[in-house]
Please model this.
Amino acid sequence: MAKTRPASHAGSWYSSDPNTLNQQLEGWLQAATRQEGEIRAVITPHAGYDYSGPTAAWAFKQINAETVRRVVLLGPAHHEYVQGCALPYAEIYRTPLGDVAVDVETVAGLGESGAFRRLSAKAEKEEHSLEMQLPYLRKVMGSAAFTLVPIVVGELSVSQQSRYAELLSPLFQQADTVFVISSDFCVMTISALGR
Model:
């Protein structure tokens, strides 16, 4: 049986009711505008949706469900000290709008580099910086199949920053992959290289 991370912040940081959540996200997305061109990365907030929901919509509106098949999700560590970056324990991330499958093959490949540690199930369950992006991802992707590469980012030295950039760069270059970077009350988009 696949290791599953529950939607542990549903019902407190955002609605656990699928209909209510869907209506909220739909309203916020309708109020946002889509930019021209293809997006390679977005930076989105990870506060409770009462505070960050409308702002996050502007970033998620840019994701094209017709072309995206993989999402690399980076979020800062809040509940466990992480030196470097950590890969997920779970293989499935649950949301009130449906499950999101982890790209176990890509995660395993990154793990083989020796540069990542693995999160414990407890630390992964408590971490909200990743979870707050998932209902929006599930919503904007609709019925389109996609996988998730969740990465918790901890304290990084300059040399580690370079090493992780080297490891993640091949994913960034792939046209079917978008990066979602979880931050505090910030929205930014990064267009495709050369455009």
Q: What stands out?
A: The radius of gyration is 16 Å. Residues 4-191 form a domain with the Protocatechuate 4,5-dioxygenase; Chain B fold (CATH 3.40.830.10).
